[in-house]
Design brief:
It contains nine helices and nine strands. With 316 residues, the chain is an alpha+beta fold. The chain has two domains: 9-102, Phosphorylase Kinase, domain 1 (2-Layer Sandwich); 114-310, Aminoglycoside 3'-phosphotransferase, Chain: A, domain 2 (Alpha-Beta Complex), CATH 3.90.1200. The strands form three sheets. It has a five-stranded antiparallel beta sheet, covered by helices on one side. Strands 6-9 form a two-stranded antiparallel ribbon. A hairpin with a 2-residue loop joins strand 2 and strand 3 (46-52).
Length: 316
């Protein structure tokens, strides 16, 4: 469980007076996540998720919360932010920016078959299509500039081989900017634990707090690197094909996207390898926190590099 900032029932009860959702019934820490403090909150008016933001500032939150509200309004099964009595989304609790969002029923899955990967591909395409009308912009806070900035802090913890792979991949990505690639609002973290299911139906998509304005294909690569990967880091052809085909039917890939695909797969793996290395070796103090295994994305990146000519291709 990741609880960096403790909230008591008394503190939350007082804070909830700013909202029209009833009085507090139950408060429980969420046993997941490494970036923010999360609680399940039950009131007499329903069930919600409370997030206290440990890194993000109040002025940054309108992009994320506004995107969630925008997507939910267009039929995407996103958690919807709850405004306070003054109609504002972000508040402050225990000195941290805080927000309440609607609770979404369902559970994540750990071993998705191709048909569920296809549903995720369609979901992601619909997010990108709906996000095209979202006017707010936010540069990717964990893009290439961030990789370069934190690399000197991470390198001293790595063995020679990993240090060489990291340095070479950051250099390689710096050679490929692809400014012509389609861009827009992206989720940037559409992993299996951020999609909720009820049976074979997607009931919700959560955790938009890495969302940003960036390359749409990069978002596809991030999803493929989680939903379609095998234990050794290689991509499963059937699952990858199902996800990409379902996405393509709703938003066809451009010629430049087809050419950029191998680079984007590597960029998606590098981003999460760097993040997990940073969280593993340079953690923040927290109550019952955990960092995810960095080697998982190291294996994916190494596999993409070694299998460059065997990677699944994008088609029209």
């Amino acid at each position: 469980m990741s609880v960096f900032t403790t909230v008591t029932r008394e503190q939350l009860s007082a804070w909830l007076k700013n909202y029209s959702i009833g009085t507090l019934v139950a408060l429980d820490g969420v046993p997941a996540g490494i970036e923010n403090t999360n609680y399940f909150v039950t009131t007499t008016g329903g069930r919600f998720v409370l997030t206290l933001f440990e890194k993000l500032k109040s002025h940054e939150l309108p992009f994320y919360l506004g995107l969630m509200d925008h997507l939910a309004g267009l039929g995407i099964p996103s958690a919807r932010p709850v405004p306070d009595r003054a109609g504002r989304f972000p508040g402050e609790l225990n000195g941290k920016p805080a927000a309440l969002v609607s609770f979404l029923a369902g559970a994540d899955i750990s071993d998705p078959p191709p048909d569920q990967c296809a549903r995720v591909g369609a979901l992601l395409a619909n997010i990108h299509l709906a996000g095209a009308s979202y006017r707010e912009k936010l540069a990717n806070p964990r893009g290439p500039r961030w990789w370069k900035a934190v690399m000197p802090e991470i390198i001293p913890f790595l063995g020679e081989g990993d240090a060489a792979l990291l340095g070479e991949e950051v250099r390689f990505q710096g050679l490929h900017r692809f400014q012509e690639l389609p861009r827009g609002a992206i989720h940037a973290d559409l992993f299996r634990d951020n999609v909720l299911w009820e049976g074979d139906r997607i009931s919700g998509v959560i955790d938009f707090y890495f969302a940003c304005t960036d390359v749409l294909l990069y978002d596809v690569a991030i999803a493929v690197n989680d939903w379609c990967v095998e234990a050794g880091g290689a991509l499963d052809g059937r699952r990858t094909g199902a996800l990409l085909e379902a996405y393509r039917r709703l938003r066809p890939f451009t010629a430049i996207e087809r050419g950029a695909w191998p680079v984007m797969l590597r960029a998606g793996a590098l981003r999460f390898w760097v993040s997990r290395l940073y969280d593993f070796y340079l953690p923040r103090p927290g109550d019952l926190t955990h960092a995810k295994d960095p080697n998982h994305f190291r294996r994916i990146l190494a596999s993409h590099v070694a299998r460059e000519h065997e990677l699944p291709q994008l088609v029209n």
